[in-house]
């Protein structure tokens, strides 16, 4: 259900309803695009920059998770639009810096800077949805956004793979800078979803203290950690798959994008189904089901990568099932978590996002520390953290179905 103020806002913006969804989807997709577009170029970047290209992902995620913790309370204090404007400007500057980088230290620095702005997109898109909608409707809207935003991780590796054939990896970051300019202009069409009377009146220092309450809020943290652990596993695939598919199995970089895109198609299909399922089943029940399916897929993947049984075909199939469950897990976990703390949705979304995307730091570090030159490292990391995700929700009580 939508409260009276939100209903009035939507009525005022009814002529731009589709624009609202498309812009929020693009804001949520900016993170995926920022990394996925140059995944096929990572082996080339490592040679050109004479360093570990995976550090560019680690640097981005470090900046991403830390900056969210700052932007969250600010958005609860001043509204959603101003942080978005500033964030896109920072993203553009960071993208240009990456494009001009000549060594690994420079590009890691600019990736951190790029992330300072990129993080405002998905964080505030979730907060804006929670500003307007109740838990079930919010889960449905988040599923809708994921269907649209999934274009980015499909198009990113495909486009990046083709670009690396005809130009250098620098061009991918110039393209991100142009994308940032378009996103900056699109924010002018967004309404402010947090009215003045609902903003946090305390000082910003006081607003930051909300994080302590959130970290000690057991219902909120269960859903948040479920999502964060799942994303440790997901980022293990995102970071490790270029090596597994391109280096280990010999897939051409321009074809890698198709294998990556297959998983996003599965995510889109499950997200589409989830839009209907959230009206029939409690969010907690859907979340438990999706996580357990992901656990089974992750265990199959661990066996396939550890023994070599089934070859690349079984790995691709297991990852497809595992990754598709994100269509339910991300939407239901986020909606259920934010529903427990609606009064500080900005800070809650920031903390959730920091843990969710910061989890990729754990993935990249584990891959770097324990890599044995085979797909097994990626496999056991995915299995371990998917099991941890399941442990967070197995004890969650299924609430009665409410709209």
TrEMBL record:
<feature type="transmembrane region" description="Helical">
    <location>
        <begin position="255"/>
        <end position="273"/>
    </location>
</feature>
<keyword id="KW-0813">Transport</keyword>
<feature type="transmembrane region" description="Helical">
    <location>
        <begin position="228"/>
        <end position="249"/>
    </location>
</feature>
<dbReference type="InterPro" id="IPR020846">
    <property type="entry name" value="MFS_dom"/>
</dbReference>
<dbReference type="Pfam" id="PF07690">
    <property type="entry name" value="MFS_1"/>
</dbReference>
<keyword id="KW-0997">Cell inner membrane</keyword>
<feature type="transmembrane region" description="Helical">
    <location>
        <begin position="376"/>
        <end position="399"/>
    </location>
</feature>
<feature type="transmembrane region" description="Helical">
    <location>
        <begin position="171"/>
        <end position="191"/>
    </location>
</feature>
<feature type="transmembrane region" description="Helical">
    <location>
        <begin position="84"/>
        <end position="102"/>
    </location>
</feature>
<dbReference type="InterPro" id="IPR011701">
    <property type="entry name" value="MFS"/>
</dbReference>
<dbReference type="InterPro" id="IPR036259">
    <property type="entry name" value="MFS_trans_sf"/>
</dbReference>
<feature type="transmembrane region" description="Helical">
    <location>
        <begin position="285"/>
        <end position="306"/>
    </location>
</feature>
<feature type="transmembrane region" description="Helical">
    <location>
        <begin position="108"/>
        <end position="129"/>
    </location>
</feature>
<comment type="similarity">
    <text>Belongs to the major facilitator superfamily. Bcr/CmlA family.</text>
</comment>
<keyword id="KW-1003">Cell membrane</keyword>
<feature type="transmembrane region" description="Helical">
    <location>
        <begin position="312"/>
        <end position="338"/>
    </location>
</feature>
<protein>
    <recommendedName>
        <fullName>Bcr/CflA family efflux transporter</fullName>
    </recommendedName>
</protein>
<dbReference type="InterPro" id="IPR004812">
    <property type="entry name" value="Efflux_drug-R_Bcr/CmlA"/>
</dbReference>
<keyword id="KW-0472">Membrane</keyword>
<feature type="domain" description="Major facilitator superfamily (MFS) profile">
    <location>
        <begin position="1"/>
        <end position="401"/>
    </location>
</feature>
<feature type="transmembrane region" description="Helical">
    <location>
        <begin position="20"/>
        <end position="41"/>
    </location>
</feature>
<keyword id="KW-1133">Transmembrane helix</keyword>
<feature type="transmembrane region" description="Helical">
    <location>
        <begin position="350"/>
        <end position="370"/>
    </location>
</feature>
<keyword id="KW-0812">Transmembrane</keyword>
<feature type="transmembrane region" description="Helical">
    <location>
        <begin position="53"/>
        <end position="72"/>
    </location>
</feature>
<feature type="transmembrane region" description="Helical">
    <location>
        <begin position="141"/>
        <end position="159"/>
    </location>
</feature>
């Amino acid at each position: 259900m939508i409260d009276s103020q939100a209903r009035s806002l939507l009525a005022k913006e009814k002529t731009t309803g589709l624009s609202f969804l498309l812009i929020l989807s693009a804001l949520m997709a900016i993170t995926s695009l920022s990394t996925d577009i140059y995944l096929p170029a990572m082996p080339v970047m490592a040679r050109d920059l004479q360093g570990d290209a995976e550090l560019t992902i680690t640097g981005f995620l470090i900046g991403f998770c830390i900056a969210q913790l700052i932007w969250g309370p600010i958005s609860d204090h001043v509204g959603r639009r101003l942080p978005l404007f500033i964030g896109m400007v920072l993203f553009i500057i960071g993208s240009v810096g990456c494009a001009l980088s000549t060594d690994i230290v420079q590009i890691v620095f600019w990736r951190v800077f790029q992330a300072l702005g990129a993080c405002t997109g998905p964080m505030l898109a979730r907060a804006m949805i929670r500003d307007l909608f109740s838990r079930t409707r919010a889960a449905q809207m988040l599923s809708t956004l994921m269907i649209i935003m999934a274009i980015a991780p499909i198009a990113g590796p495909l486009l990046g793979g083709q670009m690396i054939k005809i130009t250098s990896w620098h061009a991918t970051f110039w393209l991100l800078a142009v994308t940032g300019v378009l996103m900056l202009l699109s924010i002018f069409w967004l309404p402010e979803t947090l009215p003045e009377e609902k903003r946090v009146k305390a000082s910003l220092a006081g607003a930051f203290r909300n994080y302590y309450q959130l970290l000690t809020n057991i219902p909120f943290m269960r859903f948040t950690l479920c999502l964060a652990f799942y994303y440790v596993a997901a980022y293990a695939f995102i970071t490790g798959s270029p090596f597994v598919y391109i280096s280990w199995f010999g897939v051409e970089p321009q074809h890698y994008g198709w294998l990556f895109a297959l998983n996003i198609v599965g995510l889109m299909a499950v997200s589409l189904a989830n839009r209907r399922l959230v009206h029939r089943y409690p969010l907690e029940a859907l979340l438990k089901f999706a996580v357990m399916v992901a656990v089974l897929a992750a265990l199959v993947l661990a066996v396939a990568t550890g023994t070599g049984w089934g070859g690349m075909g079984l790995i691709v199939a297991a990852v497809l099932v595992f990754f598709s469950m994100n269509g339910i897990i991300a939407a239901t976990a986020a909606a259920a978590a934010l529903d427990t703390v609606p009064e500080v949705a900005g800070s809650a979304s920031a903390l959730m996002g920091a843990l969710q995307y910061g989890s990729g730091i754990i993935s990249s570090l584990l891959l770097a520390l324990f890599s044995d030159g085979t797909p097994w490292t990626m496999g056991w990391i995915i299995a371990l953290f998917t099991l941890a995700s399941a442990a967070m929700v197995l004890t969650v009580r299924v609430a009665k179905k409410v709209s």
